[in-house]
C-alpha cells in the first residue's frame, strides 16, 4: 500500500478493500461484519486475533453493538464499555494500532475509525527476577510489557513529579520506549542529551534493552558498561530518587538506567536495606573482588615469570613442588584454566538445569582434579583460577562482571610479558580510560576523579542512611537535599 | 583506548621477550657458603632446592672454586640444572677461618650491588670447614637452608646467639661508631647448633667471639630483651653453698650516659631489668629475701656484663654501639677520634644493673 | 572571556596536579644527595627549600593572576612581542621537553635496574607511552583527574615507607646541627630543585576554576611534597647509618627491600612497580606542557597530532639511544640548572616586568 498517510474513505467497502490489500497473508486478521443500531447500519470490526483479548471483544464490543437500539449516524454515537478508545482518520495510525492489538471499528459512511483498547497477548506473570535475585528487597521483577513495568515503578513513587515520556524507536518494530524521571531532581541537560540520543537511533527495531543501550552509550569502545540494566523495580526506583533517568523499553524485562558512575555497578539496592556496617563490609568485599578478578591470575603469572623474589620462601617451595610436573609456562597454564572456567560458565548458562549440574561435575571433578593429577596444571593454579571465578561472581552487576572477566586476559598477557610493570601499566590504562569515560556526559570516574567528597558516603563504604542527606552529585541532580536531618 | 592496547600487546607478543626469569628455569640459591679453598682461592657452596619427585635429595649442593662469588656462580651455572639466582637467599655462611683472613665486604659486594639479590639473608659464621655443614644429613629436618634458618631463629629467640642480615651487617660496618657481629653456627655430632656471637672489627675481619653462655648478656646490652631473655645464674651468699637461680627477663630500661673527660670517653650504663623468677634450686623465702636476691642477681649480672665489655674492648670492637651515644651526645670529641674502636678500647665503662623481680610463679 | 572553560579543574585537582609533578623521580635519590652534603641534618634543608618554593610559587601565581585567562605562552606573547615572546615560549617548551625526557628515561632506567633487567629500552618506552598517550590526549581535565586519582591510589605508600621507621635508630639523627648551618645551606640548593614542578602553574593556572584559592593551593601542594620528602628522608636517615646513606644511589628503594610480610617479601619490586603511577604524574604533565606549548605555537587547538608526533619521537629515540646512568645524571643536572632559572629566577624577573608594564599602561589609561 503506497502512502499510509492516506485518509480513510467514507465507504466501508472501500476501506475494507484497502485493508485487504494491505494485510495480505495475515490469516489472524479477523473481519467481523455487523449490522448495528436502528435502522441497521453496516459496521466492520477488524482486529488481529492473536493480539487481542477475545473475551473483551465478545463481551465489551460485539455484544453491546448487537443489542444497540439507538440510531447510529456517525461513529461518535457508538458507546462501548471500554475506557481507552480513540479515533483515527489516517491509515498509518489504524494499521499501527491494529498491530498493537487494538480493535478498529469502521462504520459505513464515516471516515473516522474507532480504535478500542482490547489488547491481550501472551504475557508472563510478574515473577521474581532471575538474574538479580533479591535478598531483602521486593520479589517482583520487571516483565515484558512496559505498561506493567511503569506500573511497578509508579507503585513506589505515587508523586506528580515522576514524569513519564514515551517515544517509539525502530522503523519496523515501533518499540515503545518510556523515560521516567523526577522532574524536580533530574538535570534537564542530562535528560535532553538522552532524548537526543534516543531520537537519533534509526534501526529496524529494538528487541532488547541491551540493544538500545549500545546504540546510545557514550563510548562504544569501552569495555565497561555505561548504563545499568536491571530487572528489579526497587533498584530502578532507588536510582530515580538519586536523580537518574530510567528507560523502560517495551518487550524487555530489563530497564536501563543512566547516567551511571563506575562505582554504582558495585552497589545493589539490597545494600540500603542492610545495616550499614554489613553493607559497608559487602562493598569492601566487592571492591576486593574487583581487584582479585582482574589481577589475581596476572599477579601469579608475574610473580612466577619475573618476580619470584616477592613470594615468601615457604610458599615458593610449595609452588615449586606443585609446578614440578607442569610442562606449560604459567601464562598458558592460566589461560587454559581461565578459558575452561569461562566455557564451563557459558555451558552451564545455556543448559537446562538438570544437565547444568552435569557440567558442574565435569568441570569440578574432571577438569580440576584430573588436570592436576595428569600434571597439566598445578594445584595452586586451580586454586587461583577458582578464587578468581568466585571473585568475579561476587560483583553484583552482570555487565560489569563480564567486563572484568574480559579484562583479565589482556592483563595476564601483559603480566607474562612485563611482569608487575605490565600489570601496573595495564592498571594505568584502565584508570586513564575510566576517568575519561562519561555516561550521558557525566564523568564515570566520579566521585573519585573528579573527586566529590560528599558522594563518598555511598561508595566504598555505605554510611548510615540518616547521614545520606544529599543525592549523589555525580548524577547531577538539581535538587540536592534528599532528607532532613531528623535524627540526632 | 583499549583497542590500542590490544594491538600493541599483540605486537609485543609476536616480537617476543627474553626478559623472563621463570621460576621453573631457575636454581634458587637459598644458602651460599664461602670458604677458603686451595691456593687462596674462594670455595663457594650453594644450596638449592630440587623440585623433582624422582630425585633422591630434595636439595642440591653445588661447590665451585672461584675468585669471587660471582665468578663462582658463573662456573656453577655450567653444571646446575637451572640458572642460579640469589634473589631468595636465606643464609650467607662464611667459615671462621675465611672470616679471619678476609675483608667480608669484598665478598659480599655482589649481594649489595645487584638489586635482584636479597639483602635480608642471614649472615652466619660457621665454626669449622664449611663442608661439614653443607654435606650434613639431617634426616629429621626438611631442606638444609630452611633448617639452618629455623635453628638460627629459634636460638636467636632464646638469646643463645644473635641474628643479623646482610643489610644490618652493612649498616654496622659502614657506621664509624659501630662494628658488626654475626651469629655462630657449628655442627656437633651430626646436629646443627647455633650459639655464640662472632665479633668483627672495623676492617670487617673476624677477631673473636662471645660464647653461647655470654650471648644472653650481649642481648641485654644490645637492648634486645623481647620476647624474654632467660638466664641461669649461680649465686652464693643466700645460703652457704652454691645455688642456681633462673630468671626470665621480661622488660628493661636502659640509659647510656656518655661523657668525655681527660681525653677519655666514659659511659655510665644503667640497666633496670624486670624479671620473672622461673626456677631455684633451693628454697628462698621470697617475702623476706626478695630484696637481697635482687641485689645478688644484679651483682652477678653486672659481673657478666663487665666481662663481655672487657672482652670487646680487648678486641677493639663496639658491636653494642656505644659509639652511637658518644656521637650523639659528645659529637666534637667523637669526631676528633681517628678510630672509634681504639677510643672505645680505652673508654671507661661503668655498668650498673638493677633487677626487679616482678613475679615468682605460683609458689611462695 | 573564558578560553579554557571546558577544561576547568577544581582546586583539589590543581593541588594534586602540582604536588604530583613535584613528587617523582627526585625523591628516590634525594636522601643520598642530602646526606652527602649535610649528613643527617639534610632534613632541615628540606624545610628551608619548602619555604623558598612557596615564595617562588606565590610569585608565579601573583604574576599569572594579572591575566587569569593566560598561560605562560599567551603571557609571553602579550608582553614580549612576537619575537621575544616566541623565544620565551620556545624556551619553556624546551624546558618541559627536557624535564619529560629526564623523567621518562630515568623511569626506564630505574625499571630496568630494579625490576626488568633484560627488557630492552624501547619496549619499556612503548609501554610507558601507552598510558602517557591516553591521558595526555584528553587534555587538562583528564590529566587533573588522573593526578587526583593517583593521589588517592598511592596514599598507602608513605605508610609503607614508615614501616622501617620502627626498626631505625633515632640516635643516628643526633646531634642536630652537628656541623653548623653551612652544609645545610649548601644542601638547600638540592632540596629547592626537588620541589621543581610548581612552575607548571604557569600552564595550569588558567584552567583553575576557583582562582582566588590559587595561592593556598600552591602552599598545600608544596606542603604535601615537603611532607613526603621529609618523611622519606628522615626514614632513610634513621634506617641507614649516616655514612651508609650516601653510598646508595636510590636509598629509598634499598630501604624497601627489607620490608617483609608473611605473605609477601621484597616489597621494593611491588613498590617500584606501583611507583610508576607516581612517576607518571610527574612525566605526563611535562609531556602535556611540551605538546600543548608546541600546538599553541602553531595556533592549533587540538594537540592530538603533536602528541602523536611526540610519542613517536620518544619511542624512536629509545630505539636509537639507550642512555647510560651517567647520561641520565647529566640530563638530570641540566634539568635542575634550567629549572633553577626557569622556576625561581625567571618568575621574579617576570613579576617585576609585568608589574612595571602594567603600572605604566595603567598610568596611561586610567
UniProtKB/TrEMBL annotation, chain A:
<feature type="transmembrane region" description="Helical">
    <location>
        <begin position="351"/>
        <end position="370"/>
    </location>
</feature>
<feature type="transmembrane region" description="Helical">
    <location>
        <begin position="407"/>
        <end position="435"/>
    </location>
</feature>
<feature type="transmembrane region" description="Helical">
    <location>
        <begin position="284"/>
        <end position="306"/>
    </location>
</feature>
<dbReference type="InterPro" id="IPR004995">
    <property type="entry name" value="Spore_Ger"/>
</dbReference>
<dbReference type="InterPro" id="IPR050768">
    <property type="entry name" value="UPF0353/GerABKA_families"/>
</dbReference>
<protein>
    <submittedName>
        <fullName>Spore germination protein</fullName>
    </submittedName>
</protein>
<feature type="transmembrane region" description="Helical">
    <location>
        <begin position="376"/>
        <end position="395"/>
    </location>
</feature>
<keyword id="KW-0812">Transmembrane</keyword>
<comment type="similarity">
    <text>Belongs to the GerABKA family.</text>
</comment>
<keyword id="KW-1133">Transmembrane helix</keyword>
<keyword id="KW-0472">Membrane</keyword>
<dbReference type="Pfam" id="PF03323">
    <property type="entry name" value="GerA"/>
</dbReference>
<dbReference type="GO" id="GO:0016020">
    <property type="term" value="C:membrane"/>
</dbReference>
<dbReference type="GO" id="GO:0009847">
    <property type="term" value="P:spore germination"/>
</dbReference>
Automatic annotation (TrEMBL), chain B:
<dbReference type="InterPro" id="IPR046953">
    <property type="entry name" value="Spore_GerAC-like_C"/>
</dbReference>
<keyword id="KW-0732">Signal</keyword>
<keyword id="KW-0175">Coiled coil</keyword>
<feature type="domain" description="Spore germination GerAC-like C-terminal">
    <location>
        <begin position="196"/>
        <end position="361"/>
    </location>
</feature>
<feature type="signal peptide">
    <location>
        <begin position="1"/>
        <end position="19"/>
    </location>
</feature>
<dbReference type="InterPro" id="IPR008844">
    <property type="entry name" value="Spore_GerAC-like"/>
</dbReference>
<dbReference type="InterPro" id="IPR057336">
    <property type="entry name" value="GerAC_N"/>
</dbReference>
<feature type="coiled-coil region">
    <location>
        <begin position="283"/>
        <end position="318"/>
    </location>
</feature>
<comment type="similarity">
    <text>Belongs to the GerABKC lipoprotein family.</text>
</comment>
<dbReference type="InterPro" id="IPR038501">
    <property type="entry name" value="Spore_GerAC_C_sf"/>
</dbReference>
<dbReference type="Pfam" id="PF25198">
    <property type="entry name" value="Spore_GerAC_N"/>
</dbReference>
<dbReference type="Pfam" id="PF05504">
    <property type="entry name" value="Spore_GerAC"/>
</dbReference>
<protein>
    <submittedName>
        <fullName>Ger(X)C family germination protein</fullName>
    </submittedName>
</protein>
<feature type="domain" description="Spore germination protein N-terminal">
    <location>
        <begin position="21"/>
        <end position="186"/>
    </location>
</feature>
<keyword id="KW-0449">Lipoprotein</keyword>
From TrEMBL, chain C:
<feature type="transmembrane region" description="Helical">
    <location>
        <begin position="269"/>
        <end position="292"/>
    </location>
</feature>
<feature type="transmembrane region" description="Helical">
    <location>
        <begin position="219"/>
        <end position="240"/>
    </location>
</feature>
<dbReference type="GO" id="GO:0016020">
    <property type="term" value="C:membrane"/>
</dbReference>
<feature type="transmembrane region" description="Helical">
    <location>
        <begin position="122"/>
        <end position="140"/>
    </location>
</feature>
<feature type="transmembrane region" description="Helical">
    <location>
        <begin position="86"/>
        <end position="110"/>
    </location>
</feature>
<keyword id="KW-0813">Transport</keyword>
<feature type="transmembrane region" description="Helical">
    <location>
        <begin position="186"/>
        <end position="207"/>
    </location>
</feature>
<comment type="similarity">
    <text>Belongs to the amino acid-polyamine-organocation (APC) superfamily. Spore germination protein (SGP) (TC 2.A.3.9) family.</text>
</comment>
<keyword id="KW-0812">Transmembrane</keyword>
<dbReference type="Pfam" id="PF03845">
    <property type="entry name" value="Spore_permease"/>
</dbReference>
<keyword id="KW-1133">Transmembrane helix</keyword>
<dbReference type="GO" id="GO:0009847">
    <property type="term" value="P:spore germination"/>
</dbReference>
<dbReference type="InterPro" id="IPR004761">
    <property type="entry name" value="Spore_GerAB"/>
</dbReference>
<feature type="transmembrane region" description="Helical">
    <location>
        <begin position="341"/>
        <end position="360"/>
    </location>
</feature>
<keyword id="KW-0309">Germination</keyword>
